[in-house]
Design brief:
Layout lengths: L22 E4 L27 E6 L23 E5 L5 E6 L14 E2 L5 E5 L9 E5 L5 E6 L14 E2 L5 E5 L8 E5 L5 E6 L14 E2 L5 E5 L9 E6 L2 E7 L19 E2 L5 E5 L9 E7 L9 E2 L5 H6 L12 E2 L30 H10 L16 E5 L2 E6 L4 E2 L2 E3 L2 E3 L3 E2 L2 E6 L11 E3 L1 E2 L24 E9 L10 E9 L4 E9 L6 E9 L21 E2 L5 E6 L12 E6 H9 L10 E4 L2 E5 L8
Parallel strand pairs: 21-22, 30-34
Antiparallel strand pairs: 1-3, 2-19, 3-4, 5-6, 6-7, 7-8, 9-10, 10-11, 11-12, 13-14, 14-15, 15-16, 16-20, 17-18, 18-19, 22-23, 23-28, 24-27, 25-26, 28-29, 31-32, 32-33, 33-34, 35-36, 36-37, 37-38, 38-39
Length: 617
């Protein structure tokens, strides 16, 4: 590719603060997965060298920045896999290339880089040979070349930013996943050979880098990690000669505020003195994020060197205490003892240990599973949208979670299936290392009760006024009723339902008598303490996807959730319970199946109704 000048994600002249005549940027993908949807990335860049030690101070402004966002969904190509466009100085847009997913890539989330000849370089978040993203180039004739397809594991996966070029024409970037766990720093040389420079461990070096890198004339790299560090909410780092040096580790914010901010997801810029500038999306003195500056030469931050080759999975096992990270653990259904209702306490059924994280379902595996799902899908296979629950059987494991995609009404094998709503219950048969297995996933909606009075809100949202019907209903954790109890052999599962605009969340119960081929709603059990209001404020957080937990004495089902109190406070943990005997009798003992009432625990007593705020206002 020849000799090139240092390039950045969005190039600008440091002397004049002016952009070149043409700007190229990646289109945003049309739709992200429900809970893995990354925020829009706004990225800034110039390239200078920074010192290895630094201190932070919050600024209300930033120098020499050029801001370009990816295009809104309305500008995405009709195939919804994204593309590359050019915008002239007169505002004329030209589509340079449209992606096709396999093998060239899909969903470019970052911008692009330009070399001195005008060749465009970028990354895609998805697509490629392994559906885990690519690094690509685009020449002046519109010919796209895949320089590398990420394979996951130690190779990295899902880059969310544009690469940067050094003076020799080598490309540098980050992946947000893989490596094998917490993301990577990679290089693609001028011959198209990719190599992993560093794999983040989730410790003081950081985790999940989402932003682009800066590279200086000496080949030193500077970037940010969105998580990890001393307290969990991210780092600013330098990588030089195979060693990663944390320049700053963002502090904890136990009350939502701190001096320096948290979770840096954008890139860095520098000025001629070598000061680094960036943003943090959360916390800060006022709780809404910060613009920060890192000054070279200060000794106020302890910059500990981390050799790129000295970290392995054994250290990852010891780093399970990261704060402010969203960890979704596997929920295991707890089978009740045959002595449910007696005074004998339950005995432990296993002694689990915590291992290092293992990727058990790749993007490609999820895509293939979606093509085989039964009944056939009418939307993407947006699984797992919630924690993954497991039920051990004599022959192996069954796994349960939610497919957040839209399930339109359709005729299948002579029966109508689907509910014109988002969410479902997905059952797969596999192993802990491969929960998707090889059999087609069973992906069914939670059907309405034959008695409409049980839950009138589980209805078709296309046929009723806004806010009357749920806009989402799906479940995962399953409890199998043991022998000797009412409903023995049947399944009882917890679902969560939602309203949109404003957001509001509920918990309910569903039953299945045919091992998940059909699920029937038996009604809500928990609503927020704050009533739903059509014109009110949205809930400050979700309610969760909890399993039913058997109490130590075997008499009660406990359910843990996040509550929204009438005072406006969002709790970090709340609990409700109901007698197991009553729950099973009401669910399976009569001709009409319905949910027994749960009581919330409040100020030392179990006397708060779980459904105190059912009716919308």
């Amino acid at each position: 590719m020849g000799q090139t000048q240092p390039q950045e994600l969005f190039w600008m002249n440091p002397a004049t603060c002016m952009a070149p005549p043409r700007l190229a940027a990646s289109m945003a993908m049309e739709r992200y997965s429900r809970w893995t949807r990354p925020p829009a990335l706004k990225q800034y860049s110039t390239v200078f060298q920074a010192a290895r030690t630094a201190r932070t101070r919050t600024r209300g402004w930033s120098k020499m920045q050029l801001e370009i966002s990816t295009a809104p969904p309305s500008m995405v190509a009709k195939d919804a896999t994204g593309g590359v466009f050019e915008l002239s100085t007169t505002g004329q847009e030209t589509i340079l290339y449209r992606f096709r997913d396999v093998p060239d890539g899909a969903s470019p989330l970052g911008g692009v880089a330009l070399d001195s000849s005008g060749k465009v370089y970028g990354t895609t978040w998805l697509g490629g040979v392994y559906s885990l993203g690519t690094v690509f180039s685009l020449d002046s004739s519109g010919t796209e070349t895949v320089l590398h397809s990420f394979a996951g594991g130690r190779d990295g996966a899902n880059p969310m930013n544009a690469p940067v070029l050094d003076q020799a024409g080598n490309l540098y970037g980050t992946t947000s996943a893989g490596g094998p766990y917490f993301g990577t720093l990679f290089m693609v040389d001028t011959s198209g050979n990719e190599s992993i420079l560093y794999s983040l461990t989730g410790g003081s070096d950081g985790a999940y880098p989402y932003s682009h890198l800066l590279v200086n004339a000496s080949g030193n790299l500077f970037g940010t990690a969105s998580q990890g560090g001393c307290c969990g909410p991210g780092t600013v780092f330098e990588f030089s000669a195979g060693t990663l040096i944390p320049l700053h580790e963002f502090s904890a914010a136990p009350n939502g505020t701190n001096p320096d901010g948290q979770i840096s997801m954008g890139g860095l810029i520098t000025d001629s003195a070598g000061n680094l500038y960036g943003t943090a999306t959360e916390a800060g003195p006022d709780g809404w994020g910060t613009v920060f500056e890192l000054e070279p030469g200060s000794q106020s931050v302890d910059a500990q060197s981390l050799d790129a080759q000295s970290k392995d999975s054994r250290e990852v096992e010891n780093r399970i205490d990261l704060q402010n990270t969203r960890s979704t653990s596997t929920a295991e259904s707890v089978p009740a003892s045959p002595r449910v209702g007696s005074s004998n306490p339950l005995q432990p059924i296993c002694n689990p240990t915590i291992s290092s994280p293992v990727e058990v379902a790749t993007s490609h595996q999820r895509y293939v599973a979606g093509t085989k799902a039964q009944p056939p899908l009418t939307d993407s296979f947006d699984w797992p949208d919630g924690q993954l629950a497991a039920l051990k059987t004599d022959s192996g494991y069954m796994f349960f979670s939610i497919d957040a995609g839209l399930h339109k009404r359709q005729l299948w094998h002579g029966q109508w299936v689907g509910n014109n709503n988002s969410g479902s219950v997905v059952k797969t048969i596999g192993t802990p290392d491969n929960p998707l297995g090889s059999a087609p996933p069973i992906d069914v909606v939670i059907g309405h009760n034959s008695d409409p009075k049980v839950n009138p809100y589980n209805c078709d949202p296309t046929k009723y006024p806004h806010h009357y019907c749920y806009t989402y209903i799906g479940g995962g954790p399953v409890y199998q009723v043991p022998a000797g109890q009412v409903g023995a052999g049947n399944w009882l599962l917890v679902y969560h339902a939602e309203y949109d605009d404003p957001a509001y969340y509920m918990l309910g119960l569903a039953i299945s008598s045919d091992e998940g081929l059909h699920c029937t709603d038996i009604g809500e059990i928990i609503r927020f303490n704050m009533p739903f209001c059509y014109n009110g404020q949205p809930a400050p957080g979700a309610i969760g996807d909890p399993p039913l937990v058997v109490s130590p004495d075997g008499k009660y089902f406990y359910v843990y959730f996040l509550d929204w109190l009438k005072s406006g406070v969002n709790t970090t943990a709340s609990i409700a319970r109901a007698p197991i005997a009553e729950v099973l009798q009401d669910a399976f003992g009569g001709s009409v199946h319905y949910a027994a009432p749960f009581k919330k625990y409040y100020q030392g007593a179990w006397d708060q109704p779980g459904m105190a705020a059912r009716r919308p206002t």
